[in-house]
Hints:
A seven-stranded mixed sheet has the order 3-2-1-7-8-10-9, with helices on both faces. It has a three-stranded mixed sheet with strand order 4-6-5. It has twelve helices and ten strands. By secondary structure, the chain is α/β, with parallel strands linked by helices.
Amino acid sequence: MIDEAIECLRRTRPSVLGAYTASMVPSERGPEGTMASEMVKVYDLLLFGAAANYDIQDGADRIRSTKDLALLFFRALEVFQPDLFVEAGAKDGGSSRRARRRLKGARIVAFEANPYTYDRFRERNEKADIEYVHLAVSDKPGSVTFNVRMSPDGKPVADGRGALTKRADYEHGYMEVSVSSTSLDVFFAGDEFKECALWMDVEGAAQQLFEGAANVLSRTAIAMVEVEDHSFWPGGWLSFDVVRHLHEAGLVPVARDFQAKYQYNIVFVREPLLNNDRFRWFLAKYHSEGGRKIDGNEGVEDASGPVARSRLWLQRKLARSHS
């Protein structure tokens, strides 16, 4: 598989292959885990190809990349039909409610650790048949110190950006609160689900979450995970750590967005499911869309996309040449 991926890079993206080769310093090629580490690097660099569909210097296009990735994820939910959906770092539970519309009979659980956020959105999610749970997800049950962001006027913020670890660059400070914690394996120990889908946005706590989720990961069909290339949260896993851990659990990274400079989302799919014909078609469309949408209105132009912008530029140029 590695040789095939490298050959694909050699034919289609020689500059990426050069970057991949240069990154393989001797200290990273020891006898333990060599093949897995190299495969993760290939996956990582191949995913950069999706940047060709966006102007990543433009904020609106970065937002569009995130929306496109979410559309791919929810299309895959419709194909795979997992019987459990889990959202960690749920904030308002929007992704869980979106999943509910596609997974009518599934159990849907959304975890939110910030007590102010939980109180703000609890009723909305209960009405939508979502198990909206006030717990922090970590590597084991117990109690953790959760850091709630403070607003400029000194009030706790009911948002989705609180964390187990404080960001050094947040200027308004944090309020420390004690929150009960669980692990995914403990919480779902008695659940006989066949397959699950994960939506993870845990602000630098990926290591704690995944180290407490070995059993859940073994039955995960698809996951959407926010990762970082920069250590916003000291000691937290970076993107390579997350990809390597999930790859070892049998999950393959298939697409990413360009949400922010050093923070973005990756969709992972269990390897055998990559043979699903419908999913392969949706994935091909995602990687070829350019300026076109991949939601239910297939074929409808997105006027903000690079393909549409290029067409508009050509139309204007032709109009000027004939005036």
